[in-house]
Amino acid sequence: MPELREALTDAGFKDVQTHLQSGNVVLTSTAKPENVARKCEREISARFGLKIPVVVRTRAELARVVKRNPLGKVADEPKAYQVTFLSARLDPQVVKAIEAAAKPPEQVVISGREVYAWYPNTIHRSRLAPKLAGKGLGVTATARNWATVEALLQLVDR
């Protein structure tokens, strides 16, 4: 992560911080989120030779994700509660397929460019999880567990 911080700082971003070893980055920029994503992708490709799609949320958008928390009353284990961040809204047919894949006691809520998914038994045996991780979504997506989502918002607010 130190190399990633250095690369993004060299690219002109300010206040670059990383969280864990999974590519979670918090930074300051006056550019539009989609421009930040493309610039990060170009820098990662140039510096590390990796083609990594990037999904960006502003501080306000991330705060709304945490505030919305539609499954907060049932999702009592943060590591079994995930938010999938999407680059764009899902096609209605994809939404139907995702909703059909959630088998009780799993729950899923699709809200704009986020998918909230609760896996109370285990994510590893879920039929829903592969739907959210696959290329069948038609958009770029990245998932974070609830503990990480909250930690990223705290990191932004430092």
Q: Which structural class do the helices and strands define?
A: alpha+beta
Number of strands: 6
Q: In what order do the strands lie side by side in the largest sheet?
A: 4-5-3-6
Mean pLDDT: 94
Radius of gyration: 16 Å
Order of helices and strands: HEEHHEHEEHEH
What is the helix tally?
6
Instruction: Give the name of the CATH architecture of the largest domain.
Output: 2-Layer Sandwich
Show unreliable segments. Answer: none
In quaternary terms, these chains amount to single chain
Give the count of structural domains: 2
**What name is given to the CATH topology of the largest domain?**
Alpha-Beta Plaits
Biggest sheet, in brief?
Answer: 4 strands, antiparallel
Describe the overall structure.
This protein is α+β, with helices and mostly antiparallel strands. The longest helix has 16 residues, at 33-48. It has helices at residues 2-10, 33-48, 59-68, 92-101, 128-133, 146-156, and strands at 14-19, 24-28, 81-86, 107-111, 114-118, 141-145. Helices cover 39% and strands 20% of the residues. The model has no long low-confidence stretch (mean pLDDT 94). The protein folds into two domains: 2-48, 2-Layer Sandwich (Alpha-Beta Plaits), CATH 3.30.70; 70-147, 2-Layer Sandwich (Alpha-Beta Plaits).
Features:
Alpha-Beta Plaits, 2 domains, 4-stranded antiparallel beta sheet, 158 residues, alpha+beta, globular, 6 strands
Could you provide a short overview of the structure?
This protein has 158 residues and is an alpha+beta fold.
